[in-house]
Design goal:
Elements: H1 3-11, H2 14-31, H3 33-49, H4 54-85, E1 93-103, E2 113-121, E3 126-134, E4 146-148, H5 160-168, E5 173-176, E6 182-184, H6 191-213, H7 216-227, H8 235-246, H9 257-271, H10 278-294, H11 300-317, H12 324-338, H13 346-367
Parallel strand pairs: 3-5
Antiparallel strand pairs: 1-2, 1-4, 2-3, 4-6
Helix pairs in contact: 1-13, 2-3, 2-4, 2-12, 6-7, 9-10, 9-11, 10-11, 11-12, 12-13
């Protein structure tokens, strides 16, 4: 079997070349001359094996330009925030997007627990990571609540990797507090922010209901698999993770594309009993999938799965024949345009890279 021949017939598509150009620009701007030379020699070698037409070259150059602009825009937005907010003390009023407690010794104050808050400040239109050391694993804070952060200043970290992580999560800054922020009532929220607060409240209510009505091990598994939310790590929960890890099944309790595929298939099977047309059934399935994603905690792999399912369903509704490798390529292209910095993180590389390998092996099997 000539693997290189199958590799070229699978991937030599305009969309693939566009993705190569997009990734090349992002890597070059991040890694400077070394990556630029590596990419230059790589493209020269590929063009000798498979000649690239003029249209392909235009697609590559346009994608490289787009990737460079998006990457620089993301950097510029992050740097501008610190230039405008470094000197003054800020008092932020924000919505709690996520609340979690980590059982780990804090290096700064030597406390056994750490409270992690993800806060969105509507007036400033910014997102903050808030860290609070705790002596006891108890907090009255819940997702959807309004809190008031005491006056604080923002200082850009010298750790470039940490800054890239903030950019990847669309977070402007990280704040360290010694006291739990005060809860307050927000009366001046816009209609969109009130709707967002309602969604956060419903998510938190669903999570708390599961924790209250099920045993700790069952609630732990349901929250992880169906909601994508990690509860507080009690001793029983840690034992569950260790047992799954011992048998090499830890990935089964981390919500990913596999769980969405199962959810998507079950919905399609149930809707088939109503005698709906294929297009109507796909449309309803997509709407329910979006609702499920809206009221759960998203991860990178889950976002990839939702986007891939959307593109696949849209193609089927329009009557187009698609291949998984093409859907994944388009998904990667869209994702990197929205978040170029994610390219340098392991979760993106594993999620998209391993999926690409599986799609490629599937195409090789079909070709033989």
């Amino acid at each position: 079997m000539n693997i290189s021949k199958h590799f070229i017939t699978i991937h030599m598509q305009p969309l693939f070349w566009g993705l190569c150009g997009l990734m090349s620009a992002i890597i070059t701007l991040q890694s400077s001359v070394v990556a630029a030379l590596w990419l230059l020699f790589g493209f020269c070698g590929l063009t000798r094996v498979t000649p690239i037409s003029q249209n392909m070259r235009i697609i590559i150059l346009a994608s490289m330009l787009l990737g460079g602009i998006r990457y620089q825009t993301q950097l510029f937005t992050f740097d501008t925030f610190y230039q405008q907010n470094t000197e003054q003390k800020n008092m932020s009023i924000g919505l709690l997007e996520d609340v979690s407690i980590v059982h780990a010794i804090d290096d700064a104050v030597k406390t056994p627990y750490t409270l992690k808050l993800l806060v969105y400040a509507p007036k400033q239109k910014m997102r903050l990571f808030v860290t609070v050391p705790l002596h006891y694993p108890y907090t009255h804070l819940r997702g959807g609540m309004c809190i008031e952060l005491p006056p604080h200043t923002y200082k850009k970290s010298n750790n470039k990797a940490f800054n890239r992580y903030l950019m990847k999560t669309f977070t402007q800054a990280s704040v360290f507090l010694f006291k739990i922020p005060k809860r307050m009532y927000c009366s001046d929220l816009s209609r969109a922010n009130k709707m967002y607060q309602w969604i956060l409240n419903k998510k938190e209510h669903l999570f708390c209901s599961i924790q209250k009505n099920f045993s700790k091990p069952t609630a732990y598994l349901i929250s992880l698999i169906f909601l994508g939310k990690t509860p507080f790590a009690h001793a029983q929960n840690r034992d569950i993770r260790e047992n799954f890890g011992y048998w090499g099944l830890l990935h089964m309790i981390a919500r990913s594309g596999l769980h969405l595929v199962i959810f998507f298939s079950v919905l399609g099977f149930l809707l088939a009993f109503f005698g709906l047309s294929p297009k109507t059934k796909l449309s309803f399935t997509l709407i329910l999938t979006y609702g499920y994603a809206l009221f759960s905690w998203l991860s990178l792999s889950f976002i990839r799965a939702v986007l891939s399912a959307t593109l696949t369903a849209y193609a089927q509704i329009r009557g187009h024949i698609t291949r998984p490798i093409d859907i994944l390529t388009l998904t990667t292209y869209i994702f990197l345009i929205a978040n170029p910095v994610a390219l340098f993180f392991l979760d993106f590389q594993l999620s998209f890279g391993l999926t690409a390998i599986l799609c490629w092996l599937s195409e090789l099997e079909k070709a033989t």
